[in-house]
Structures are given as C-alpha cells and as structure tokens.
Automatic annotation (TrEMBL):
Annotated organism of origin: Paractinoplanes pyxinae
Protein name: DUF4832 domain-containing protein
Keyword Signal: yes
PROSITE patterns (alphabetical): CBM6 (PS51175)
Pfam families reported for this sequence: DUF4832
Database matches in CDD domains: CBM35_galactosidase-like
Domain CBM6 span(s) in chain numbering: 518-631
Signal peptide: 1-24
Keyword annotations of the record: Signal
Length: 631
C-alpha cells in the first residue's frame, strides 16, 4: 500500500480489481501435523513459568518505512524495516539491461542491520507520485526503444508492455540476479515480488481486465505473469517471498512457496461497510483478501509460506483503540490476524504508539510466532554424556519460518557461558496450538486444535567440565548476529528469558559417576484414585502430588533399573506417615508441615532396563511427594 491515497479512490480500486479465479471449494480445515515424540521419561521434569512475549522479536510485528540516515529504533518497538526501490535505480544503464547497480539496496540493508533489524523490501516500476526519494516512473532506461510504453492518465505514470518479450527477458534476468545476490542474506527478512503494476502490487486499475470502461488492459497475460512468478520462486529458495493476491497471474504462486501480502489489512469501506480482508461470511466484500483465498483454496498457505501486509494507512493511528472487535472503518483485527495468520505488517504510524499499550501488545504477540518453553527435561546431577530436552508451545497465529539454529549452553555460577551445543531442533515444526475456523468450513466452533507442544532432545557431552553448579540455558541464533552486534535476539515468552538472549532452563550439578542420579517429578507420574497435583512453592517444579494412600497411588515410569538402587524421596508431611514403595514399607518422618520439603532414602532392587516405582498405602495416608532421585 502507498503512503497516502483517499479512501474513496482506494475503495473503487479494490472493488474493480478482477475477482478471484474460480475454485471448487475452500481447502477446508488442514490436517494436524504429526504428533511429536514423547518426553524422555528418564529425565526429571522442570516446569518453566510463562511470561508475555517480547514485542520486538525478529521477523514479526510492525515495520516502519526506511528513511536513509533516520533512527530506525524510535517509536513502538519493532524489528523490521520496510523499503521500496524503483527498478530504474538498480538497472541504471541505458544500453545494457544486464548491468545492475545494487548500491541502493546494499546501503539500505547495511543501515538496517546496524540497528539490529531485518529488512522487508519491494522493487517497483510505477509508483504514482513517487515516494519522495524514489521516482514515480521507474522503468529502466534500457527499455527505451525496445519496449512499448503505455500512458496511464489516471495515475499520471507510465507502464511498460509487460507482455513484450524483451521486457519479460530483462525482468526474468533481473530476478535471477536479484536472487543470486540476496537469497538467504541474513539482513533480508521478507521480499515482496513487486515489479508488476502500480506500486508493484500486481494490479493496474483502472487499466485492467475490465475494459468495458473503454480503457485497455495493461496487466501482463496470466501466462507471462506466471513466468515472473516462476522466476522468483527459482531465484529465492531461502528468503521468504510474498505476492499481493492469490489469484495473481492465474494463481501461479499458489503451488509454490510464496505467501501473500494483504496491502489493505483489516479495513472496511463502502455503504454498508464491508471488510477488505475478512471473507463474506464475516462481513467482507466479494473482493476481500480472504475471500480470494477461499475461492482459490489457499486459506492454509500460511502453514509453510509467510503472510504479510500493511495495516491500511487510514486506520493505523486508531486501529487498536477498539481491539479486538473493531469499530467503523476498523474491522475485527483479532479475526483478521487469526484467519490470515499474518506474521508482519507495514505500519508507519506505529511510531506514535505507546510501548506499554496493552491492546497493541496483544495484537503483536498474536502475530506470527509466540514461543514458550513450558518444560525442560534433564537430570539434576549429570556427568559424561547426558540428555537435555525441552517442550515448546506456540500461541501465535503462524510458525517461525526460518531454520535458525537452536543452541544449548551451560552457564557457570558467575553467569558465563562455558560450553555450547548446536542442536538439530527445527523451530518451524512448532505450529500454533490452535487455529481459527472459517465459517465457510462448517466445522463447528470458533477454534480447533492444530499444533502440539513440540518436544526436542539433545545429547550433551559434559566431559572436561569442572564439577560444580551450573545452569542449563537455551538460545536461538539470529543469522544477523554474524553481520551486526545489535541483531535482535529471538526470545521466548518465559519468565526466565534473559536479556542476553539465553533462556534459563534450570540448575544442574555437574559431577562424576555415570551421569549422577536420575530425577523424576511427582506431577509427571501416573496417578490413580484420588491422587492429585497441587501447587507447592517449596517444591522443585512448583508442584507436588497429594492425597496419596487409601487406594490412591503414584507411579514413576522410565526409572533406570538393574540391581540395587538408592531411591531418595523428597516429600512433605506434618506428621509421621508410612507408605509401600514397590511393596516395600518406607517410613516418612514429619518434615515440619505440608509446605516444608524433607528427604528420606531407601534401597530398592530394580529389574534391568526401564522400570517403575509405585508409592501406595492401602490402609492409610501416605505423605505428599515432590520428586524422587534414583542412583
């Protein structure tokens, strides 16, 4: 979307944009991904407290316009910067269409990276009125004499003949060179296909397929437009790319890893008011973005391809005053985000938002990914080779789209990271836990389960580390860190997320002797009868299991067996109690109260392999159990 245009003009423009191509039906509810592996039962469970996610996490949220030399980090916190470029500013040679001057793009990417941000960009040929620093007519000078030009008297710009073989070849060669230079560049977060039509938005209204108004059609044929889409798909295999409409070029992008970009996000227009993002089933217009998705069966494209857009300029300053339901020209923003699954949005006027605005914060946290580690899994004491696992939930509307490296680490008591392990964990697998149903699906209810709390595990070699107390930590490497020391860190929505990018998973003692005792949290065990989990501030995981005995039991599974083992019970009781452990009687002295943790040990002979330990008391009450360790 351009910086400023009248609402009436824009409304007419959208209304007369060609309707979506026909499709038999919406795609319907997507099948759930494969369920993840279960956590390793031999590892102790360490719950982590959730917290609000950061509002300036990388590759999501709002993007402000690039202004050379301007401070990119003023206004509402953000991690993306949006930039336009005219093609004539890159293809500057009048005699050679294969000559490219990339300095204008390089300068923007370098300056943006210096602020720790990633860029989102588009290259255009026509931009009514220009941007102020970029030209209105950006047709390369090498087209002169080789490509017919077409006057657009409505917008006072010139369009090239997009179907001209010379122009098609030049554009495809440019796209190939563009990708060869920037595909996978850590400074570039998202790329809009651009090039075709007004503002590079793949429409030329009123010079479009509706020729009844006496104006010719200036758009490329679907076949030629599809050549450009295919060229972008071939040139950019790592950087996420987006196109305006799902029906552009006859839907040529729909079976490719190319997302969509709603440049008129969540606006309502006309009389009566109709949304230009939400489908007709939610009060949208026939030409609304999501109606086009439903018509082409592409409403689930977000699962693998990124979705972006621009919050309509007319509503940017006021949109969140009526969050989430909207009012007047502002449609239901929550529904718009949940059904488009948008990760990012151009929003120049976000610079005027207060950083503490709760409504804006709620919207930004919903956009894209919002990752929380709910549990870490590891042995409380370990040495040699040991396993560490985490379970990650996503409460955003979209996955994280890039294969950034997840690294485990150990911090010593002084807070210094003393060892790291790069894992093979793929955050792209952490899909949103729930997604919103389209009314058109007739699926019943507003929401449905989709993703899972994804479990990942890594084996860490602790050999050579001095015995002592450490903390397990976790971080995600932003590739921009290789370019800029100011690169934004991807941070989790957890209370133990640290400002240096590391997420605290919990303490561990590194010692000698076969990996140390294996720890098991009571709340992770299997309960029968009236046994119940209760909060416990003094307990290791913040929880305990009570109401044990008189028929109620607690079973720990995955316990390493193989002969005599020392089993240490961490428990709570205000009075002496007894229990049977695998049928063997154990006495539990009073600990001083139901909020005070004590410990007692017993020796059990356990069969080889993974086995179980069951706490019971058929004729009375047992103590509350926090956890056990087995050595």
């Amino acid at each position: 979307m351009r910086r400023s245009l009248g609402a009436v003009v824009l409304g007419v423009l959208l209304a007369l944009t060609p309707a979506a191509v026909a499709h038999a039906a919406p795609a319907g509810p997507p099948p759930r991904p494969a369920a993840p592996s279960a956590p390793d039962a031999a590892l102790a469970v360490h719950p982590l407290a959730a917290a609000p996610g950061p509002i300036d996490n990388p590759l999501k949220g709002f993007a402000k316009f690039y202004s050379p030399g301007g401070n990119q980090n003023v206004g509402y916190p953000h991690a993306l910067t949006w930039g336009y470029f005219g093609l004539s500013e890159i293809m500057t040679s009048a005699s050679n269409c294969g000559s490219y001057n990339w300095s204008i793009v390089d300068n923007m990417l370098a300056e943006t990276a210096s602020y720790g941000n990633q860029a989102a960009i588009r290259v255009y040929l026509t931009y009514p009125g220009g941007t102020g620093s970029h030209p209105a007519n950006a047709i390369p000078p090498c087209f002169t004499g080789n490509v017919a030009m077409r006057a657009d008297t409505y917008w006072n710009v010139t369009h090239p003949d997009y179907d001209n073989p010379f122009a098609l070849t030049a554009l495809k060669n440019f796209i190939a060179a563009f990708g060869a230079r920037y595909d996978g560049d850590p400074r570039l977060g998202f790329l809009h296909l651009g090039l075709v039509g007004l503002w590079g938005e793949w429409h030329t209204w009123p010079y479009d397929t509706d020729t009844a108004d006496g104006r010719p059609n200036y758009m490329p044929s679907d076949a030629n437009g599809a050549q450009l889409v295919a060229a972008f798909d071939a040139a950019f295999n790592r950087t996420k790319v987006e196109i305006r409409y799902p029906d552009a070029a006859g839907g040529a992008a729909n079976n490719r890893d190319i997302g969509y970009h709603d440049d008129s996000f969540c606006f309502r227009e006309g009389s009566p008011l109709q949304g230009v993002t939400l489908p007709q089933s939610l009060g949208g217009a026939s030409y609304a973005q999501l109606q086009r998705n439903l018509a082409t069966g592409t409403e689930n494209k977000w699962i693998t391809s990124s979705i972006g857009g621009e919050l309509r300029p007319e509503i940017q300053s006021t949109a969140f005053a009526s969050w989430p339901n909207g009012s007047g020209a502002v449609d239901n923003l929550k529904a718009c985000l949940e059904l488009t699954h948008a990760s990012w949005m151009i929003n120049e006027q976000s610079g005027g938002y207060a950083a503490g605005d709760a409504n804006v914060g709620a919207a930004v946290r919903l956009m894209g990914y919002n990752l929380t580690v709910d549990n870490a899994y590891y042995r409380d004491t370990a040495s040699g080779s040991t396993n560490v696992g985490v379970r990650i939930a996503n409460t955003g509307v979209a996955p994280f789209y890039y294969p950034w490296t997840v690294t485990l680490g150990l911090k010593n008591s002084g807070g210094t990271v003393v060892r790291t392990w790069d894992t093979s964990w793929d955050l792209r697998k952490v899909q949103p836990l729930t997604i919103r149903n389209f009314p058109d699906w007739n699926a019943g209810g507003d929401y449905r389960d989709f993703g899972y709390r994804q479990y990942f595990q890594h084996t860490a070699d602790l050999s050579g580390l001095a015995n002592g107390s450490y903390q397990w930590v976790l971080r995600v490497k932003n590739p921009l860190e290789a370019v800029s020391a100011n690169a934004r860190k991807l941070r989790f929505a957890n209370a133990t997320q640290q400002s240096d990018g590391w997420l605290g998973l919990g303490p561990v003692t590194v010692g000698t002797g076969g990996g140390g005792p294996a720890g098991f949290e009571a709340e992770a065990g299997t309960r029968t009868g009236g046994a119940a989990v209760a909060s416990c501030a003094a307990c290791s995981g913040g929880q305990k299991v009570g109401w044990l005995g008189n028929g109620a039991t607690l079973t720990f599974t995955g316990v390493p067996g193989g002969g005599p083992k020392t089993v240490t019970f961490h428990y709570l009781t205000a009075e002496p109690r007894t229990a049977t452990v695998n049928g063997q009687p154990v006495t539990f002295p009073a600990t001083g109260g139901w909020d005070t943790v004590g410990a007692t040990a017993t020796t059990l002979t356990l069969p080889a392999g993974a086995t179980t330990i069951t706490v019971a008391n058929p004729g009375g009450w047992a103590p509350d159990i926090d956890r056990i360790t087995v050595s």
